[in-house]
Amino acid sequence: MPMERNTIQHYKNVAEKTSSNRLEDLSFTHHIEVASLPTEKQKQFLQLAKVEYCPNRGWIQVFY
After folding, report:
1. Which of 1, 20, 40, 47 has its CA 20 to 30 A from that of 31?
2. Any idea where the domains of the chain sit in the sequence?
């Protein structure tokens, strides 16, 4: 089943916005959560998610 164009565009946007902060230990969903934040905040929250073993969705609300 092919992906919708909007889905592909969303994945592309998240990948572009978080590429310099990507942590392989975390899911793409974690990166979706921080994509709208400034680069330094992305780094901070992704490291925190890695250390705290945060679940995929909604974890950023606990820290932000």
Report:
1. 1
2. 5-63
Amino acid symbol at 41: K
- Please list the pLDDT of the chain residue by residue as tens digits (64 residues): 788 999 999 999 999 999 998 999 888 988 998 999 999 999 998 998 888 767 666 666 666 6
Enter the pTM of the model.
0.77
Residue 43 CB: number of other CB atoms within 10 A? Answer: 16
Dist. CA 33–CA 24, nearest whole Å: 15
By the 8 A CB rule, do 49 and 59 touch?
A: yes
The length of the chain is: 64
